[in-house]
Design brief:
Elements (H helix, E strand, L loop, with lengths): L1 H25 L3 H18 L4 E5 L10 E8 L2 E6 L8 E9 L3 E5 L28 E8 L2 E6 L5 E6 L5 H15 L5 E5 L2 E7 L9 E6 L2 E10 L3 E10 L2 E9 L2 E3 L6 E4 L6 E6 L5 E8 L5 E8 L8 H10 L12 E6 L5 E12 L2 E4 L4 E2 L3 E2 L8 H5 L2 E10 L7 E10 L3 E5 L12 E6 L4 E5 L2 E2 L8 E10 L2 E6 L3 E7 L5 E5 L1 E4 L4 E12 L4 E4 L11 E11 L20 E2 L6 E2 L8 E6 L2
Parallel strand pairs: 32-41
Antiparallel strand pairs: 1-2, 1-8, 2-3, 3-4, 4-5, 5-6, 6-7, 7-8, 9-10, 9-16, 10-11, 11-12, 12-13, 13-14, 14-15, 15-16, 17-18, 18-20, 19-21, 21-22, 21-23, 21-24, 22-39, 25-26, 25-38, 26-27, 27-28, 28-29, 29-33, 30-31, 31-32, 31-36, 33-34, 34-38, 35-36, 35-41, 36-37, 37-40
Length: 599
């Protein structure tokens, strides 16, 4: 006991001596050094007249690659432009300095163009995680021409460099256009030292990541990169293949090149050509035989309504067809005949395109090949009332779940069974809105259509069974509403417009609800998941009816996808076991399933 007391008595003297030695060794206390770094960083950041380019990497694994963010610092306020908003859009928020294992800079208040990469439900990445980025950073070094930070959560290195004296809108507009151009390969390969290596370009939770893997004889080599302001790309860490280290590549002549090593990343292109033979044409089916010129390359073929090409490019049609590929069984090698389902009295075009498969991911390697148009077999004659609904309509909601503002979108009603039902595409905001069709039933008695709730859709999804299900809005929240009933009912007005009413009912527990809209869901075996939003829509901001409909075009012209404004939303490929842009986590509002009480 006596020894213990003596040690405790001496301990303060030891600590005092250590602190004194620390100050003597560095000339300043730890707090003084931290304050000096903070003040120096602030002077550097506020000293750049036009702000800084931040090379931001979310996720500890850098699986999303790098994102360009413009920042201008002034007296605790930061102005931000990023790829989440695009050219011409800025937002202000606050920043401050603190210390945690060293001096830190923290972005304290929400900024939609910065915190979207760190917020838990951004629409990209897992729910409650998001892209996993940082909003607090340890200051590693500072200078007038470069500031280096380290993410507290990810430990990623984040580099800031001053922007030139050019208007942000001009610079970011050019950057976005360059990225769209450079990000537009259908498939990728690396050519180095006379060898060609396949590249598996990744899609992470619906985001076209700046991340890929080079496939070599000894395994795959991952690489995370960012597109540079000077048109090219720069790797987070050097890409080392076959003993050659590559740090940056320049976009030139439609490919990425490295002058030092001679390496290039280019698009994989095949010369495979296709011819089609159509036979046994019926009202609901047709036989199509497809013959490729390259027998050992995979390809996919189907028939597409001729009307689809009136409002969609060949490229868009190709990717819509590819979205439906989930299994190797759907692909063909050599000459192949298939019996395909068609609607009656409809003109179709046989289509095909070549594919390559890398690590289970599929990539188009040809243009869309088209055969000669043909008419499907004759069905029952259509009544004038039935025909009046055919075509593309612009739909406007009364409100929406998040913004509380009307949402406008286009739908298409195409013939399914004459005088009985329509094929419906475009309803709601899902990424599946134009690629998967539900059914709307025609009611001749009052010239209306009904969208019945709980439709099991005839599409393949490896994650579960897809359905078209109503979103019920009640006092206690928003729910998936099970049960079979007319969720939405459209009635033709005398002036040729239409009005759509929403079903009102009670849950099995007696609570009243009103259908807001219908959307695509996946039953994963006892629980439901949702798809992410299509381009041009906001995650979770579903329309809320009643709805107004105005005829936009005649029968057959399908709704066209909204223009892509975010350079990160163009998904060009997907894995055979995945659906692109799928988000199988629950809704941001924590949606649950309730059963409707039908009376």
């Amino acid at each position: 006991m006596k020894k213990l007391i003596i040690l405790l008595a001496v301990l303060p003297l030891v600590l005092s001596s250590c602190l004194k030695d620390d100050k003597d060794a560095f000339g300043k206390t730890a707090s003084e050094r931290i304050r000096e770094v903070q003040e120096g960083t602030e002077k550097a950041l506020t000293g750049a007249a036009n702000g800084w380019l931040m090379e931001y990497y979310p996720s500890a694994t850098q699986e999303y690659g790098g994102i360009a963010i413009y920042m201008k610092f002034q007296n605790g306020t930061v102005t931000v432009t990023s790829e989440a908003g695009g050219a011409g859009k800025t937002a202000e928020s606050l920043y401050s300095y603190d210390q945690d294992y060293g001096p830190t800079i923290n972005f304290d208040t929400y900024n939609p163009y910065f915190h979207i990469y760190s917020e838990p439900n951004s629409g990209v990445g897992p729910t409650n995680t998001g892209m996993g980025g940082d909003s607090e950073f340890i200051i590693m070094s500072y200078a007038a021409d470069k500031v280096v930070l380290r993410g507290k959560k990810t430990q990623n290195t984040i580099v800031l460099t001053p922007l030139p004296e050019t208007a942000w809108n001009t610079m970011f507009g050019k950057y976005s256009a360059d990225v769209t151009k450079m990000d537009n390969f259908r498939s990728y390969e690396l050519v180095l030292n006379g060898k060609t290596y396949d590249i598996s370009r990744e899609v992470a939770a619906g985001y076209n990541s700046r991340y890929f893997s080079v496939v070599t004889e000894n395994g795959t080599i991952p690489a995370s990169f960012i597109y540079t302001q000077d048109t090219g790309l720069k790797f987070y860490e050097p890409l080392v293949v076959d003993g050659v280290s590559i740090e940056e590549m320049t976009w030139s002549g439609g490919m990425f090149t490295d002058e030092m090593s001679g390496a290039r990343i280019q698009e994989t292109v095949s010369n495979n050509k296709f011819t089609f033979a159509v036979s046994d044409i019926k009202a609901t089916s047709v036989n199509v035989e497809t013959t490729p010129t390259v027998a050992n390359e995979y390809y996919y073929f189907d028939v597409v309504p001729s009307s689809a090409f009136a409002s969609a490019s060949d490229e868009e049609i190709l990717y819509e067809l590819m979205d439906g590929i989930t299994s190797m069984n759907q692909l063909s090698l050599g000459k192949m005949m298939k019996t395909l389902t068609v609607d009656s009295d409809t003109e179709y075009i046989p289509c095909a395109f070549g594919l390559k498969i890398v690590n289970g991911w599929i990539y188009p390697i040809t243009e869309l090949a088209k055969g000669t148009a043909f008419m499907s077999g004759q069905g029952d004659p259509m009544s004038p009332e039935y025909q009046a609904w055919l075509g593309t309509w612009t739909v406007t909601s009364t409100s929406s779940e998040k913004s509380k503002q009307p949402i406008t979108f286009d739908i298409t009603l195409a013939k399914k069974v004459a005088n009985t039902s329509y094929s419906l595409t475009g309803w709601d905001i899902s990424v599946r809105r134009l690629t998967w069709a539900g059914t709307a039933d025609f009611k001749a008695t009052n010239n209306s259509f009904e969208i019945i709730n709980g439709q099991e859709l005839p599409y393949s999804d490896p994650n579960g069974t897809p359905y078209l299900i109503a979103r019920g809005i009640a006092a206690s929240g928003t729910y998936i509403v099970s049960g079979s009933y007319p969720a939405l009912t459209g009635v033709m007005n005398s002036d040729g417009t239409a009005s759509v009413s929403c079903y009102k009912g009670k849950f099995s527990d007696g609570e009243e609800f009103t259908v807001g809209t219908v959307g695509y869901f996946i039953d994963t075996g006892g629980s439901y998941g949702s798809y992410g939003p299509a381009a041009g829509f906001t995650s979770g901001d579903h329309p809320v009816g009643p709805f107004k409909m105005v005829k936009k075009s005649a029968a057959g012209a399908p709704a066209k996808a909204a223009a892509l404004t975010n350079v990160n939303t163009v998904i060009r490929y997907h894995k055979l076991s995945d659906i692109p842009q799928i988000n199988l986590s629950s809704f941001q509002i924590g949606i649950n399933v309730k059963a409707a009480k039908l009376e």
